[in-house]
Amino acid sequence: MGLADVLYGAYERRLRAQIPPERVPRHVGIILDGNRRWAEAQGSTSSAGHRAGAAKIADFLGWCDEAGVEVVTLWLLSTDNLSRPEPELAALVGIIEDTVVGLQEQGRWRLHPVGALDLLPDHLARVLKEAQEATAQVDGSLVNVAVGYGGRREVVDAVRSLLQEHAGQGTSLDELAQLLDVEHIAEHLYTKGQPDPDLVIRTSGEQRLSGFLLWQSAHSEFYFCEAYWPDFRHVDFLRAMRSYAIRVRRFGS
């Protein structure tokens, strides 16, 4: 073991010591950004970047398990990404399928698809549904796999589902308008029944949410990391956790 490894290990231990167990977020959302730019910097293809990013996911989930995070949301594919050129989209879809199957086979996490599955290629939608069914009884943390996800689309889908539910019950629009509140919509989101994200991380240096968990992140803390996703290290994760731990959360103020 070299000096660099010794120093890195010491720094990791120092960071861990600065994160009290009671200050660990229950739900962490992460925007896995920068795969293509990482590949360009390496002189490689976008597919190589996406594969390098996919290889990082299991490590990240393991770090979350070690820290005591209960729910993780991974944003793998947005609704905007579905309009990418066909060769790139097909390669990305294949990588996501391989990733989901790999996570399923590890049997460590309960996988939950989050997104508009009706917009996805049939095979990808089927892989996501099968992974959810196969891991439903796993005694592990809950991992939302956001594929074909867009925050605005989620709110529209939630409102549509709410209207359909009440139409089936014979509720008039006037009656629905009188009783409608925030919780009614929350009950129809893709993440219904889950805690909202306490911490949202975005890699690659971009400082925007791009619609990620648009409704649920109203009171979230945000952490923006300069590293491209394939270069995201355990110390980067611990820095994000430490940053969250020392903040004073002011809900609605």
Question: Tags for this entry?
Answer:
single chain, 253 residues, alpha/beta, Undecaprenyl pyrophosphate synthetase, six-stranded parallel beta sheet, 9 helices, globular
Question: Can you describe what's shown?
Answer:
- This protein is an alpha/beta fold.
- It has a domain of 174 residues: Undecaprenyl pyrophosphate synthetase (3-Layer(aba) Sandwich), CATH 3.40.1180.10.
- 47% of the residues lie in helices and 13% in strands.
- It has 9 helices and 6 strands, in the order H-E-H-H-E-H-E-H-E-H-H-H-E-E-H.
- Strands 3-4-2-1-5-6 form a 6-stranded parallel beta sheet, sandwiched between helices.
- Helix 5 links the parallel strand 3 and strand 4.
- Helix 2 packs across helix 3.
- The longest helix has 22 residues.
- The radius of gyration is 19 Å and the shape is globular.
- The termini are far apart.
- The mean pLDDT is 95.
Please write out the topology.
Elements: H1 3-17, E1 27-31, H2 35-41, H3 46-67, E2 71-78, H4 86-106, E3 110-114, H5 122-134, E4 142-149, H6 151-168, H7 173-179, H8 182-186, E5 199-202, E6 221-224, H9 234-245
Parallel strand pairs: 1-2, 1-5, 2-4, 3-4, 5-6
